[in-house]
């Protein structure tokens, strides 16, 4: 499916801005109407001062004017593969019906998507909290072991100091005994 972009004539832009149905009397407007089918309001065809028209790839740019319900696709009047299918002209009613069905589908799909996004946000929050808890726990383990190492080092220093004191005391006693003899 191809989409052509066409600049709008100034009067058509003015009609759009006023939200009025477009008078198809001028040659320019008749040419544009022949491109776009029978839509009575230009605002339903044109967006932002440009016309967006879907055209058939198989039939030299023919405008897509019919809807096949069996294939759920739009096609031009020259496409024959939809001859036995349930089809209808693309009118405001058909377009509104398709739009309503699309909105219903979007609503149906939107609810689970919203729940998935909420779940994803919850998972991301839990992952963030897990990371913060991990970092905090590592700091606490480091602090506890630093304290334990400090206690062990103090005990080592006390034991060495006591050992040195016992050694010096016994050395003095033994030296005194050796000097008596």
- Kindly name the structural category: alpha+beta
Oligomeric status? single chain
Main sheet overview: 3 strands, antiparallel
Helix content: 55-70%
Indicate the mean pLDDT.
75
Counting DSSP H or I runs of 4 or more residues, the number of helices is: 3
Gyration radius over CA:
43 Å
CATH C-level class of the domain at 2-90 is Alpha Beta
Shape assignment:
rod-shaped
Q: Provide the CATH architecture of the domain at 2-90.
A: 2-Layer Sandwich
Strand order of the largest sheet: 1-3-2
Can you write the helix and strand succession as a string?
EHHEEEEEH
Q: How many DSSP E strands? A: 6
Structure description:
The protein has a domain at 2-90: Double Stranded RNA Binding Domain (2-Layer Sandwich). A hairpin with a 4-residue loop joins strand 4 and strand 5 (73-75). It contains three helices and six strands; from the N terminus they run E-H-H-E-E-E-E-E-H. With 181 residues, the protein is α+β, with helices and mostly antiparallel strands. The chain has helices at residues 10-18, 27-36, 92-180; strands at 2-7, 46-47, 50-55, 66-68, 73-75, 87-89. Strands 1-3-2 form a three-stranded antiparallel beta sheet, with no helix packed on it. Residues 1-9, 15-24 and 26-51 have low confidence and may be disordered. The radius of gyration is 43 Å and the shape is rod-shaped.
């Amino acid at each position: 499916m191809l989409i052509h972009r066409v600049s709008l004539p100034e009067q058509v832009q003015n009609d759009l801005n006023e939200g009025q149905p477009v008078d198809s009397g001028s040659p320019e407007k008749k040419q544009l109407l022949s491109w776009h089918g029978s839509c009575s309001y230009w605002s339903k065809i044109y967006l932002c001062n440009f016309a967006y028209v879907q055209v058939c790839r198989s039939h030299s740019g023919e405008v897509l004017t019919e809807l096949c319900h069996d294939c759920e696709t739009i096609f031009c009047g020259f496409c024959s593969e939809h001859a036995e299918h349930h089809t209808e002209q693309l009118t405001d009613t058909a377009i509104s019906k398709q739009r309503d069905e699309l909105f219903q589908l979007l609503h149906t799909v939107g609810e689970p998507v919203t729940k998935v996004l909420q779940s994803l946000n919850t998972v991301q929050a839990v992952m963030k909290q897990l990371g913060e808890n991990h970092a905090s726990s590592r700091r606490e383990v480091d602090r506890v072991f630093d304290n334990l190492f400090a206690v062990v080092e103090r005990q080592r220093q006390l034991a060495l100091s006591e050992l040195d004191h016992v050694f010096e005391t016994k050395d003095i006693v033994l030296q005194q005994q050796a000097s008596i003899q």
